[in-house]
Design a protein that fits this description.
Structural class: alpha/beta
Strand content: 15-25%
Strand order of the largest sheet: 8-7-6-9-10-14-13
Number of helices: 23
Radius of gyration: 33 Å
Number of strands: 14
Shape: globular
Largest sheet: 7 strands, mixed
Length: 511
């Protein structure tokens, strides 16, 4: 939980209900006044070592959000916006204001009175200062009464104005902060994409802070434009900004620099160069219920992967880098989700660069793993495999899993493959896998599972993404279970991998 809060802003909400009890005709009468308070809290970028030290202190174990801002947890917090006591546990200031409204409301006579709010006040609303300064004359004494009346009227007018202002505040809707964040979300994405395309994070990786003008000259961009881009990257928590200049955060070094082991640079470029264009046609996708490659590419796509993703060596490599980065992010979790040690061989169907195959080989030294994918992919896949003891366990085989025989194996792996295809092609692929399996063979299926109630934002966005990009769709656990059972796979185990993926291990049973 603390790792997810690190380097990000989150909101702390407290809901309060005040039950006001009174007696009316010897009967209990209750009215309820409700409100909530929101405080925004920004965490610093926190190291894993620091978080473990804090967890081992025992303090976060009974705290909402996993930290106590009033004690040791305060060292995790960079800034807050709003009521500090609300984060501690109770919005005392807002509560007291509500009590004033309940027990000390404006007097009825104050609310009935009103004053005219002309652009220029009437002359008789001003005191005759000369009379006061003259001291004790009869006109001044006569005017004293009128001054008292005017003072009383002024107080009543102020009370009425405050009451009117209070009523206006009560009737105004809450400021739509979250909605505005959603509206501007596409701008933040494009800013990140642009910074990656300009290799800003590569330039700053493991380097001393640099000034905007120096970065601009190195990326061949304007100084004013570069500075604005760097500032928004700093605001998003991707860069650190100091008097010395800009430098990468740990997140940028690990995930955004293109040469990192867990770099998402390729995935980001895929989103920038293809997905961004496809989503400009989202309205058409929703109206037509089909992917939009024909509009984005200017031609009808007969074979989605051949024409859209692999149409040129450049797009093929871009897609492979995207898949390699995403697979590396979760490969270890996939390989260790279940005990697969009883399988001596595995076939990663559509295994692309072999990133998952390498993790399987690392985890299970007795396992021989075959990566099966299209010839153009296999031609380049070996270049993504670093040297090491696992190299002898991994083999590459070229073919089309809809047409060519699958390599023999005791375990077949389909990692983020089925969601790309409609049901008829999913049945065809599962049928081919089932035909290659002997009883007792396993099928490891890795996908993003839709929750049954369809409320999780990320999985629903993935589902919308599938509509725009592919012929397929995301499915729920129940849908995958029914598909697998139709092809003889039972004894299913399910593990949520954290993040966005889920894993299903099923066993082929004798017919």
């Amino acid at each position: 939980m603390l790792s997810r809060l690190s380097g990000r802003e989150h909101s702390v909400f407290t809901g309060v209900a005040i039950v006001h009890c009174s007696s009316k005709d010897h009967q209990l009468d209750t009215t309820v006044s409700e409100f909530y308070e929101e405080t925004k809290v920004k965490f610093s970028e926190l190291s894993e070592e620091l978080l473990w030290e804090y967890v081992h202190s025992g303090e976060p174990m009974d705290k909402a959000g996993g930290y106590g801002i009033q004690a040791l947890g305060g060292m995790l917090v960079e800034s807050i916006h709003g009521d500090f006591l609300n984060v501690v546990g109770f919005p005392l200031n807002h509560f007291c204001k509500q009590l004033v409204k309940l027990y000390y409301p404006p007097r009825p006579e104050d609310l009935r009175r009103s004053v005219k709010h002309d652009s220029i006040p009437a002359a008789d609303t001003f005191e005759d200062l000369s009379d006061v300064e003259g001291g004790g004359s009869e006109p001044a004494q006569r005017d004293a009464g009128s001054r008292d009346e005017k003072a009383e009227a002024g107080e009543a007018g102020q009370a009425a104005a405050e009451a009117e202002c209070h009523r206006t505040r009560e009737t105004l809707p809450p400021f739509p902060t979250r909605l505005l964040e959603l509206i501007e979300g596409f701008m933040l994405s494009k800013a990140l994409f642009t910074a990656c395309k300009l290799k800003v994070f590569d330039l700053l990786k493991d380097e001393a802070p640099q000034k905007a003008v120096d970065i601009a000259s190195k990326v061949d961009a304007s100084a004013c434009g570069t500075e604005r881009l760097l500032d928004i990257c700093a605001a998003m928590g991707l860069l650190e900004k100091t008097e010395q200049g800009y430098s990468n955060t740990e997140t940028a070094n690990v995930y955004l620099a293109s040469d990192g082991e867990y770099s998402l640079h390729g995935f980001i470029m895929h989103n920038n160069d293809l997905t961004w264009n496809l989503f400009t046609y989202l309205e058409f996708a929703i109206r037509e219920g089909t992917n939009q490659h024909h509009r984005a590419l200017g031609k009808k796509v007969e074979d989605l992967f051949q024409d859209a993703y692999y149409q040129s060596p450049e797009t093929r490599l871009r897609f492979m880098r995207a898949m390699h980065g995403m697979t590396k992010l979760t490969a270890c979790q996939v390989a260790t989700a279940f005990n697969l040690s009883h399988f001596s061989s595995a076939c990663d169907v559509g295994g692309c660069t072999g990133a998952l195959a390498r993790e399987l080989a690392r985890e299970y030294p007795r396992m021989q793993v075959t990566v099966f994918d299209l010839p153009d992919i296999i031609e380049l896949a070996a270049h993504f495999q670093p040297p090491g003891p696992q190299a002898g366990q991994i083999h590459f085989a070229a073919g089309d899993f809809f047409r060519d025989p699958l390599p023999s194996a005791e375990l077949y792996v389909l990692c983020r493959i089925l969601h790309d295809w409609p049901d008829d092609k999913v049945h065809k692929l599962l049928s081919r896998v089932a035909d290659s399996c002997k009883p007792g063979a396993g099928l490891l299926l890795v996908e993003t599972l839709l929750d049954e109630k369809r409320v999780a934002q990320h999985t629903l966005m993935q589902s919308l993404n599938m509509l725009v990009q592919t012929e397929g769709k995301e499915r729920s656990l129940g849908e995958y279970q029914r598909l697998l059972e139709l092809h003889g796979f039972h004894q299913m185990q399910v593990v949520h991998l954290g993040g966005v993926l889920d894993a299903i291990l099923a066993t082929k049973v004798a017919p």
